[in-house]
Amino acid sequence: MTQFSLPAAIVTRPSPAAALELLKPITWFAPMWAYACGVISSGQPLADHVPAIILGILLAGPLVCGTSQAANDWYDRHVDAINEPGRPIPSGRIPGRWGLYIAVVWTGVSLAVAALLGQAVLAAAVAGLTLAWIYSAPPLRLKQNGWLGAAACGFCYESLPWFTGAAALLGGVPDGRVLGVALLYGLGAHGIMTLNDFKSVEGDRQMGIVSLPVQLGVDRAARVACWFMAAPQLVVIALLAAWGLPVHAAIICVLLGAQFVLMRRLLGAPRERAAWYNATGTTLYVLGMLASAFALRSLAGGGA
Fold first, then answer.
1. pLDDT, tens digit, 9 for 90 and up, residues 79-105
2. Residue 63 half-sphere exposure, CB side, CA atoms within 13 Å?
3. pTM as predicted
4. Quick check: 6 pLDDT over 60?
């Protein structure tokens, strides 16, 4: 009696687990943290704004950041087939054009939620989603240039969520000090994003993506990344000192000093230690963000 083996099932739609993997929950932390920093820096009583805080955290992380991840994976599917073939799209677990559909639907949901939090938040969401799409999608595809791509990511992950958190609680645009600190930490995140590119140098070269490690070489790109991370923090320290907040400035100074120690080790083997630095030095960076948020809260009269 002849036995026949059944063909493998053809995947026609993604499973919830595959869709969640496409949205990359691990990447949500940075914008959610920045949103929380914005909330703190607003100086508003937190207990009076619990719904806005919860809704905004969902907007910053699962929605806007999730949209950016889905769009990026869709337009990067050919690069990922070389660098990371196990990802949901190149592996076939997100079949057909489902990756694009998820990104489009999630964009609409993000805008609907942002509209509930006010005009300033909606404007920030439009800006963030626009950057997310042009970062990945042709013809602009900002990620093809390491300088522009890392800048777009830094502002989307840090500056815009910080602005959004403050704006959601204030009901409008925050003052210049909040905006300035948010922009500085977004600029510093340029270096963090550059370190993320170290893992995909070969695939980027093959696909014509000129990340900073491709343009400058790994060693030089690592030094540039360190300067981008450190210089804005030095400016924040100077600003807080000038605003009469020496304790907060000293806290960030200590955190930056510890980063300098870790940077020296990073520069000894940048490609091998980039992920290690993002788990250690970046933690100190975001703690400095929190210290800055409390400093701004003190200036706004919300208490230290």
1. 888 878 999 999 999 999 999 999 999
2. 21
3. 0.93
4. no
Q: How many residues does the chain have?
A: 304
Distances (CA, A) of 88 to 83, 133, 201: 13, 19, 21
Residue 167's CB: how many other CB atoms inside 10 A?
Answer: 25
Contacts of 293 (CB under 8 A, 6+ apart): 36, 37, 38, 40, 41
What is the full DSSP assignment across 155-174? IIIIIHHHHHHHHHHHTS--
Q: What is the DSSP letter of 142?
A: G
Structure tokens at 268: 């000894």
Domains of the chain by start residue, with CATH: 16-299 (1.10.600)
Tokens, residue 39: 């909330």
Q: Read off the tokens for 88.
A: 């949901």
Displacement of CA 256 from its chain's centroid (Å): 20
Q: Mean pLDDT lowest for which of 6-10, 69-73, 184-188, 198-202?
A: 6-10
AA letter at 44:
Q
